[in-house]
Amino acid sequence: MSGPVMPAAGPPDVIEIRGIRGFGRHGVFDHERAEGQEFVVDVRLELDTRKAAATDDLADTVNYGVVAEQVHAAIENDPVDLIETLAQRIADLCLADRRVSGTAVTIHKPSAPIKVPFDDVVLTVQRRAGESS
């Protein structure tokens, strides 16, 4: 006789924070570093929220207000050349919370130095907990 049947793991629950805006000096060109520009970041956090739902306690989930503040600080501090580097930095901070099993980070650079009409430059990285960066 076997033990109780455990339900199959389903898709993760998701918290998304969209449109975190900050003024950064990221870019490879001198004018990008000197003048700066707006960056917009969306983050997706994958986690299991069942414990938080059962306890109704913020301590049992990810505080998305804190995550938003950390992302904002990453946008506005420590300039890097590439948005790929910025995206990885933000993914690492999202995965620092042990409850987050995966993340997607989208960086929007609507004022990128492109000489033709365009709407936006967008990079999305997806990372899983336990993967090395």
From TrEMBL:
Lyase found in the keyword field: yes
Superkingdom of origin: Bacteria
Pathway membership, UniProt: Cofactor biosynthesis; tetrahydrofolate biosynthesis; 2-amino-4-hydroxy-6-hydroxymethyl-7,8-dihydropteridine diphosphate from 7,8-dihydroneopterin triphosphate: step 3/4
Pfam families cross-referenced by the UniProt entry: FolB (PF02152)
Domain (Dihydroneopterin aldolase/epimerase) ranges: 15-127
Keywords: Folate biosynthesis, Lyase
Catalytically driven reaction(s): 7,8-dihydroneopterin = 6-hydroxymethyl-7,8-dihydropterin + glycolaldehyde
Keyword Lyase: yes
InterPro entries given in the database record: Dihydroneopterin_aldolase, FolB_dom, GTP-CH-I_C/QueF
Protein name: 7,8-dihydroneopterin aldolase
Species classification: Bacteria, Bacillati, Actinomycetota, Actinomycetes, Propionibacteriales
